[in-house]
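Researcher: Going back to the complex we discussed earlier. I've cleaned up the inputs and rechecked each line, so this should be the final set. Can you rerun the prediction on the complete assembly and write out the structure?
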Amino acid sequence: MTRWFPIPLTDGLTLLAEAPAAENGPLVLAGVLLSLVVIYLAAKLGGEVCARINLPPVLGELLGGVVVGISILHLLAFPEATSEASRSLIIRFLESTGGLQPESALSVFEAESEVISVLAEIGVIILLFEIGLESDLKELLRVGPQAAAVAVVGVAVPFAAGTSGLIALFGVPVIPAVFAGAALTATSIGITAKVLAELQRLSSREGQIIIGAAVLDDVLGIIVLAVVASLAKTGEIQIGNVIYLIVAAAVFLIGSIFLGRLLSPYFVGLVNRLQTRGNLLLSSLVLVFVLSYIGAVIQLEAILGAFAAGLILAETEKREELAEKVVPIADMLVPIFFVVVGARTDISVLNPFVPENREGLILATFLIVVAILGKAITGLAVFGQPGINRLAIGVGMIPRGEVGLVFVAVGSATGVLSKPLEAAIIVMVILTTFLAPALLRLVFRDQAEVADKMLEAIATTKPEEVESVKE
Amino acid sequence: MTRWFPIPLTDGLTLLAEAPAAENGPLVLAGVLLSLVVIYLAAKLGGEVCARINLPPVLGELLGGVVVGISILHLLAFPEATSEASRSLIIRFLESTGGLQPESALSVFEAESEVISVLAEIGVIILLFEIGLESDLKELLRVGPQAAAVAVVGVAVPFAAGTSGLIALFGVPVIPAVFAGAALTATSIGITAKVLAELQRLSSREGQIIIGAAVLDDVLGIIVLAVVASLAKTGEIQIGNVIYLIVAAAVFLIGSIFLGRLLSPYFVGLVNRLQTRGNLLLSSLVLVFVLSYIGAVIQLEAILGAFAAGLILAETEKREELAEKVVPIADMLVPIFFVVVGARTDISVLNPFVPENREGLILATFLIVVAILGKAITGLAVFGQPGINRLAIGVGMIPRGEVGLVFVAVGSATGVLSKPLEAAIIVMVILTTFLAPALLRLVFRDQAEVADKMLEAIATTKPEEVESVKE
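Model: Rerun complete. Updated structure for the full complex:
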């Protein structure tokens, strides 16, 4: 391609709205703008296609991400997947249209990817804040015991079945088998919550049990990962670390919600006294980001802090006003997260025609069966809730998503995973992540259809009976 | 300070929602979250204080930025101002609470600053999009000749007076004097537009003349900068480059608005067929970011593209729905821009007790007088608009803002500016930027008070007369 204009862009781009942070600053901005355009087009195209064939739009965003990502189009690439900046089509586009010099390409590529990654993280923080805002703390506490049962079964069963199966059936050594078993325990709260919101089931009892269980599962997953990571590194379990994580999680979640409820009247009072534009939104974002920072810094997760902030603010009189204001922000930032998750996924491990993939695919088949069944049965752990959709709860726990990939990343770093086992875990994560939204829609749809038919049948009888069934 | 927990954060933070782009990714996110908290607190504190003493909130955001920035608290620092990461308090906070290792501090600092800088740029892009959306293309075209006259006078008078004054009164050599004169020509469209919006004067005739003139001034400023930069570098003016910029600006602004109006019915039709969440917002953001990218890449400015996108979409039936959705996004991102502009401003050059500042301050006094008078008289260039507030138009053109700092950055890079002259330009930029919002409020208030008094006096007479005066 020839250049569109006679002078290198770096001269002209210095004219952007302010003095650039580094001399490549303007090109980084240009790269970020292009990446966002690609992300939004992928999200909308994928989402619209999925919506039309009755699949959850978020699945379309993930698939759209796969198409534009490191697996197929290379429009979005990331330094950890490729060290060559030239493999990112956006960087090549910048070189040919933006006057980016080859010697600056790598640093621009890294900076642009860093910005997109952080935007994706802020996207999932906003998503979890929105989910917290739509959740009902009282309902969540009421279904707490059920959620805890679901979370514990959903960690214990896949871990035990996966680890023992790998050892017994495939002769995998103990430590890698434990690691792979641990990777089966994760649940992606982001994907599940987003699908539930799309199906408008977030505030149903099933929805609240799933959300509660997914949050607890997140905490359990962190503890499991800490255990297996230290096991893989040193061959022993650091009990102190495990106790620290359990205490930190409990103190953080209970403490922030308790303190938050105590202090929220003062927060509302303060917001009401502010006069400038965006008073409620910015004050709330300060709370969200502070709790996210604390969640991250005490070795839990940023998203747990964001969820806690949502729960706290949901209890205030500002809930509806705030929820309305968060919608456009979530619309803008959340798709970045899902498209980036898809774009980072390397689906080449799924190709059965590559001989070295085959051993991994066989292991993967086993892991997938355990992953799906091990979570699907968790609904059976729910007690004292007659008439509840147990299958929906179990299915809601299936997607491993980005959390599963963290296990792979840590496993790679410590070097305990063989190449085929690593690939198998990735395949398991991909399939559970991409299947779960469709399955979840299916199990909730069936229920809705049954309910509709029941209501229809009863509609001919007395109205008060219909009311009682609806409840 | 002691660490809050027993294990380095980098282990724990790997658990963040996805595999990090670089191994420091999670710490970068933590740094960005902290920076955003600091930015929002500074914006709200400054904004609320200013709102209470009847100054525009945006001035408070700028001043809040100064307080947390490189001049005073060092909470927000930027690599171009200091090469030591340890001078950023946020980085030191991360080191003591987040387990950031000293050897990674610089790269985390740079990445975090890059992300905040890009967020600030996206903030001013969203601001100009919002301003475009609130503008009226027909009104803007109708006042076009007046706006052009204001822009041309506002470039010619300060340039001629500044350059000749520096040569004649202070014996400054020709090329640096030309450079300093050129720096006097800029107008910060962002600050002016924001103040007008806060005063609810954006759609007044004065407001539209100021916006039109500021946009043209932006284009003229780019051309002036290209001229003086090549003059400083090679000693001669590259005519081809100047012609290119003029043609590119004309083709881009006229072309995008013409094409946009032609294609906008298809855009609306497409948006109406989309079914998934955020259809209007994301489709619009794609247009905004594409035009911003083109604006940047053809050596104009990203914000010109964003403004054009706003003008285009303002002509569609979606205007109001879209404007409503953009509000929370602007509330979230625009303050980042103003606080960052303030945080980057080094006010130490204003200290008269430092002997080496004195020569600069004397030069600055002269530049400030020229800067204010040279723009204030531009209102006189408005013709055929009886009863218009000429002073308000002139005052609206005063703030140099971030555009003025670009001149300083380019001047520094080419080495033509002496230290005192460079400091003098910075002082001029600071004072015009920080004074203009207050002055603008004053001149519009006076007008409002006069109008109120007139109405009051007339109110005792016939009602139909009051109506005609109001118009």
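Model: Worth noting: Residues 1-22, 465-471 of chain A have pLDDT under 50 and may be disordered.
Researcher: Good, that matches what I expected from the previous run.
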